[in-house]
Amino acid sequence: MLNSVIKRSALCRFKFTCLQVSECRPAQIEISKRLYSAKASGNGEYDLCVIGGGPGGYVAAIRGAQLGLKTICVEKRGTLGGTCLNVGCIPSKALLNNSHIYHTVKHDTKRRGIDVSGVSVNLSQMMKAKDDSVKSLTSGIEYLFKKNKVEYAKGTGSFIDPQTLSVKGIDGAADQTIKAKNFIIATGSEVKPFPGVTIDEKKIVSSTGALSLSEVPKKMTVLGGGIIGLEMGSVWSRLGAEVTVVEFLPAVGGPMDADISKALSRIISKQGIKFKTSTKLLSAKVNGDSVEVEIENMKNNKRETYQTDVLLVAIGRVPYTEGLGLDKLGISMDKSNRVIMDSEYRTNIPHIRVIGDATLGPMLAHKAEDEGIAAVEYIAKGQGHVNYNCIPAVMYTHPEVAWVGITEQKAKESGIKYRIGTFPFSANSRAKTNMDADGLVKVIVDAETDRLLGVHMIGPMAGELIGEATLALEYGASAEDVARVCHAHPTLSEATKEAMMAAWCGKSIHF
Ligand SMILES: Cc1cc2nc3c(=O)[nH]c(=O)nc-3n(C[C@H](O)[C@H](O)[C@H](O)COP(=O)(O)OP(=O)(O)OC[C@H]3O[C@@H](n4cnc5c(N)ncnc54)[C@H](O)[C@@H]3O)c2cc1C
Ligand SMILES: NC(=O)c1ccc[n+]([C@@H]2O[C@H](COP(=O)([O-])OP(=O)(O)OC[C@H]3O[C@@H](n4cnc5c(N)ncnc54)[C@H](O)[C@@H]3O)[C@@H](O)[C@H]2O)c1
């Protein structure tokens, strides 16, 4: 315990030297020098031009203006917020939430002592509620731009030369030419196509079409058992569709820990979604009112052809930089078309930086936002912070899946000596009283130091619970550190505490 306390206070001091303003004077002198050199010199010239108004771009623009940079943000969609707010995180979560409420009220009230009848879906109202949430959040960003004095150019940006961007106006906005001392490319990503399959957004849809279907399909096939496939598959399954997920790999859930993926398949299968893993799509074509799908099981080479009402293609996303003129400037990209950057988000043309889905790393909105803040802090102050070992991920199925840090497989591959602690939600009192106790928390710690390496969970509100684990990992905490923190009772967060106890001393209290 004493060791742990000493270790903890040493860590705190280390963090505070970086974070407490009063102790950062030398850095601040450097900051003002940098800010001066980042400032624009003439009229019509900007300190910062951000291309793309998604979570990466709009956050970078707001923070840039807050740090005193004359900032303009160029967006071609017509609304701010990018993929996330318009056709990603926000509309999907609105549908996930309301479809979950519908499903619970329809199928999970009797055992709770509530009698309901006549429950039905009003899909157009559910879509309207989703659209209203999107609208209020996207227009909120316009308000934040005004409040922070960020200029907003509605149009498509394309580099003329490394200092100049031409903007082709949309929605009646005039064309313009922007000169800036610094640029940030935040142009995001687009759907990865499946060769030979044409997305029409009606019968063969991407996530965008799957967010706006006008009726509940009887049968839906989802190609790809990753985050989009399982989130959107859950929405339509809860609303009544027969959903089959076709996944190339032997397991669903993409990069998540194998134990959690197993639990996820078990729980989601019970909800009625069918999985065809180790299976590849051979062809898909629209045939009248349905889609004819041909698949092959790669374990036994068995082929199957069947009709489905809707096919959702969700096999990943690829960076989007079309029409930006990056080739002309000679900006380096990797094999997957991600714009290459250094640790300060600079491309090989240093005053042009890149963040978010357009560059390396996980394609997540919070990662894009944090990079946006760090990139402008590098411009204005010469220092920024994103800890890539500590970016949480959440899958908003029910129950939710959330993780941060490394998986057990990764620990094995890296040759790290580790210990595991687990705790099931079925032994957590709040989960029991909520009658929603499927899932577990799994903690991976360094066997020698007890320091956290990864935390993985599937369970109720896992997306909220992962915040504590993320903070602990960021500050280099040990499992003992978290286990000794007082957690309120009865809360779901006690499951995290108990998994930490199991990892630290081999035993939890309630399991
Ligand atoms: C269905 C779905 C659900 C998702 N759910 C989540 C979630 O729950 N949590 C999460 O963390 N992530 C989620 N994501 C991922 C998340 O949306 C992205 O990681 C995030 O939007 C990336 O932000 P970004 O700013 O890099 O790019 P984007 O949000 O894609 O924004 C880029 C913007 O740049 C604009 N643009 C492109 N080229 C130009 C140009 N030449 N000129 C002007 N403008 C241009 C585009 O119009 C776009 O608005 C989801 C994605 C999808 C598809
Ligand atoms: N909650 C969230 O944070 C959230 C929600 C949605 C999307 N996103 C982000 O959007 C991005 C795209 O999501 P996604 O679900 O499309 O991608 P993904 O990478 O999460 O999953 C794609 C899945 O498709 C499978 N696959 C690939 N090719 C295939 C093929 N030919 N046949 C069958 N299966 C195939 C992969 O093995 C993988 O399981 C992700 O990077 C994700 O981070 C995040």
> How many E-type strands?
21
Main structural class: alpha/beta
The fourth-level CATH homologous superfamily of the largest domain is: FAD/NAD(P)-binding domain
Strand order of the largest sheet: 1-2-3-4-5
Mean pLDDT reading: 93
Strand percentage: 15-25%
| Integer count of domains | 3
List the ligand species: flavin-adenine dinucleotide, nicotinamide-adenine-dinucleotide
Helix content: 25-40%
CATH class of the largest domain: Alpha Beta
Largest sheet: 5 strands, mixed, barrel
| CATH structural fold name of the largest domain | FAD/NAD(P)-binding domain
* Number of distinct helices: 16
Uncertain residue segments: 1-32
Q: Any idea what the shape is?
A: globular
Give the termini separation.
Answer: 23 Å
Q: In angstroms, what is the radius of gyration?
A: 25 Å
CATH architecture of the largest domain: 3-Layer(bba) Sandwich
